[in-house]
Amino acid sequence: MTEELMTIREMCATYDVTPRTLRFYEAKELLFPIREGQKRLFTKRDHARLKLILRGKRFGFSLEEIRQLLDLYHVGDQQLTQMSRTYEIACERLADMELRREELTQAIDDLKEQLRWGEKVIASMKQEKKAAE
Amino acid sequence: MTEELMTIREMCATYDVTPRTLRFYEAKELLFPIREGQKRLFTKRDHARLKLILRGKRFGFSLEEIRQLLDLYHVGDQQLTQMSRTYEIACERLADMELRREELTQAIDDLKEQLRWGEKVIASMKQEKKAAE
DNA sequence: CGTTTGCATTACGTAAACGTCATCTAAGTG
DNA sequence: CACTTAGATGACGTTTACGTAATGCAAACG
Asked: In this model, does residue A2 exceed pLDDT 50?
């Protein structure tokens, strides 16, 4: 069941995506499935990355932006300068995301207020209807 | 300065978009500038709607989804049934957005943790470099 | 052993969201 | 009045993120 390696179909079923999508992500270097002969086998790492990809998409990040974000999660053993640069970029992203959350909160509050107004309108309309009967 | 009606250029300057974008939004019935002869004049209502459009885009909503959301903000005097339906849709949207915010919060926390890890790595690399000198 | 089944590659198609270019008008400017 | 300026209207081009065949291979099944 919860095996270490998954075929493309199993991945599709697990994450509700198409094979095309997974191959596309590999072509774009977002995923790196290993090969058993010709066939792709998706590793634990691919699972983690795909989850982050799908989450990123829900926030309107482009695949290219997501790729850059993903690179932050597998840095390994790079040069100090590169590492620092990566760190800076990550900080900027974080700031972006926090700003986004604030905006989202604002949007949620706006919509809530609108809904309260809507409730009142509906209530009064029901009253009118009743009165007209 | 802060006049009631704006030309297309003034709108572009104010919101950092192109004329093409504004005409496109009009074609898609997201904006409804009035006409003075041939020329478009954008009203207060268009300002409000454009702000919401741009905000929606930052969260990965499609223009069509945004259009539906915008409709919630000008309902006016519709039928009760339509109003109720609109209200339901709005509630669903609200739930979506709150879910999104939770996910975003999760993503922010993940990234923060990653950054703390990154700080440690950078610190230790600086140590190594120092030791190597 | 023929044939599904599962996956591969290659290539062309598509919807969304504009960009870009060509052409046209109406209004103002020296 | 020639000319620039601001804006309008098509029409075609472009990028992103896949969808959709068409074709091929290799193992597994009846």
From this structure: no
